[in-house]
Amino acid sequence: MSTSRRAGREAGPPAARPVPAPPKPESGPITQAIPVVGPSGNRHEAGAGGGEGERSQPSRKRGRRRRRGNRLPDRAIVFVGPMAAGKTSLGKRVARELGIPFVDSDALFVQAHGPIVDFFAAHGEEEFRRIEAEVIAEELAKPGARIFALGGGAVLSERTRALLSEHPVVLLMTTQEAVLRTANISRRPLLRDDPEAWGRILAERKPLYEAVADVTYRTDRATKDQLAVRVTQWVRTQGRGAGSGTSGGRQGGGRSNRQGGARAGGARAGGARQGRTSTRKTKENPSE
Ligand SMILES: Nc1ncnc2c1ncn2[C@@H]1O[C@H](COP(=O)(O)OP(=O)(O)O)[C@@H](O)[C@H]1O
Ligand SMILES: O=C(O)C1=C[C@@H](OP(=O)(O)O)[C@@H](O)[C@H](O)C1
Ligand SMILES: [Mg+2]
């Protein structure tokens, strides 16, 4: 296992990753209706449904299947990445697939403080970052499997990066071209007046994303449906055999990661889990 290279490479069979906490009971599927906070701040049901025209409750059959299939950690699985990479939209889908809640840090912020664009205008970015880091720390402290999508700049906080060393972290990466094609720029204060700032901001933050990530998926090279399947599969490996060496092996086939031209970068954390305050994860980077 490489100990120095970072995320952003092809996902393949990840290596086992030691988990520091004592083995926790694996969380089973959550089959009851689950409150979800979307980016708009609205609560809706996610366990199934997620607000995109699907059922509000998983069927009993699906629930049984999930109970057998899920091996989820008893903690938040965190999505990071640049603005408009798809953290919110893909995070919702993955949560729905897994039958677990979805939480979005921007939505938590909006619930308490109103629209981010307005907050930036009134109080500035620094104050936004301060509150964002608090909101994230509070959420990460809660137990229970769920997908937690962070705002793109959340990794700027050292405190947040340190906390992420205790969580499975998925990095979603894309390109400026794809973002300018699909994203709603007007809701993102840092892009509103200068959409091309996206690339400059990414250049500054890329090392931070890579330092916290366990696996990377490119969202500009696959459909949301394809990615939802792939990321869901990866998440399912994260609760297995803490320290048993089986945690990543099942993904191994990496089959889905290499299909359809959608490249999932892969890396696995190892070292970071040995130290609670480490902000850097040790990864294996299978070749591309
Ligand atoms: N393969 C994909 N995965 C995720 N999002 C995608 C994909 N293709 C296009 N999109 C679009 O990109 C945008 C990403 O927005 P969002 O999920 O809010 O990103 P983020 O939360 O990372 O800022 C959405 O409009 C989404 O529909
Ligand atoms: O990258 C950033 O600095 C930001 C990203 C946004 O979230 P998304 O990444 O979900 O767009 C939101 O937190 C805010 O506009 C600032
Ligand atoms: Mg988002």
Topology (elements, then pairings):
Layout: E1 35-37, E2 43-45, H1 60-69, E3 76-80, H2 87-98, E4 102-104, H3 105-113, H4 116-123, H5 125-140, E5 146-149, H6 158-164, E6 169-173, H7 176-182, H8 189-192, H9 197-212, E7 215-218, H10 224-236, E8 264-266
Parallel strand pairs: 3-5, 3-6, 4-5, 6-7
Antiparallel strand pairs: 1-2, 7-8
Helix pairs in contact: 2-10, 3-5, 4-5, 5-6
In short:
Catalyzes the specific phosphorylation of the 3-hydroxyl group of shikimic acid using ATP as a cosubstrate. One of its GO terms (molecular function) is shikimate kinase activity. The chain is built from 10 helices and 8 strands.
Mind explaining what this structure looks like?
It is built from ten helices and eight strands. The radius of gyration is 18 Å and the shape is globular. With 288 residues, the protein is α/β, with parallel strands linked by helices. The protein starts with 34 loop residues before the first strand and ends in a 22-residue tail after the last strand. The chain has a single domain, classed as Rossmann fold, CATH 3.40.50.300. Helix 3 crosses helix 5, helix 4 crosses helix 5 and helix 5 packs parallel to helix 6. The N terminus and C terminus are likely disordered. The longest helix has 16 residues. The structure holds adenosine-5'-diphosphate, shikimate-3-phosphate and magnesium ion. It is found in: Cytoplasm.
